[in-house]
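Sequence only, no structure available. Ideas?
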Amino acid sequence: MLSAKSLFQEILDNDESFALFCSIAAGGESQGGWENGRIAALVPPGERAMAPKIARHGADEDKHGRIFNALMKKRGLHPVPVPPETDYTMLLEKHGIGLSHDRLRADRTLTAEDIVVYLAHSRVTEQRAAEQMAMLRTYFADAPDVGRAVRMISADEDNHLAYTHEELLRLAAAGHGRLIQRSLRACALAEIRIYRDVSIAVMAHMGRILGWSRARSALLAAGIHAVYAWERFAGWHRMVSLRMPERRDALGGAPAPAPGFA
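Reply:
I predicted one. Tokens follow.
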């Protein structure tokens, strides 16, 4: 029977597919850490109170990258090259989602509008990350090899999502509501398309590694396209709604350490 749990279990059980999975995840998290670090350094004067939270966000992402690398090391594996078509973070940047890397490399202070674009990008992508980690937590929270890592990363992603809701609502109240909604919509519609393409590419690589039949690969691809169709029709709305989170100031304070992984 083909299920999300059996699919991920198969990927986790094979050293080659596990190394690719962790390498893709580690690369994306490390890239997110760099981006948040640069944004924290370039925050405009009127938003300096956000800088420690943005830095905390970046530190969490760096920590996640170290965790995925440590999971590989624990199994005697090494990171593998990430195929460009599976690089979710870089494809988002290539398609103009979020702040460009050229902008972040320049030593020019960001504007309030730039902060809105950053937060809109984070709101959408953290929704995806939180949902993915919640799924993995459901199936693998008690797994002896990856359970602790899954629980830790999932908790962080929930905090990141809460933070984006709270900060965007604050900026909406300050008069940026229309820009926020335009930015969220554009980001969400682009993200679901890129997520579809990346998912198909990742499953194609996994299929070659694990020897999946053409029928099974076609079934998985059809499922990915079906998810995209639902997201394009209505599912994207969950990525643009804003509500005050139950946990306020989720990124206040120092980041939680990752004992046994760092």
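The chain is about 70% helix and 0% strand.
Hope that gets you unstuck.
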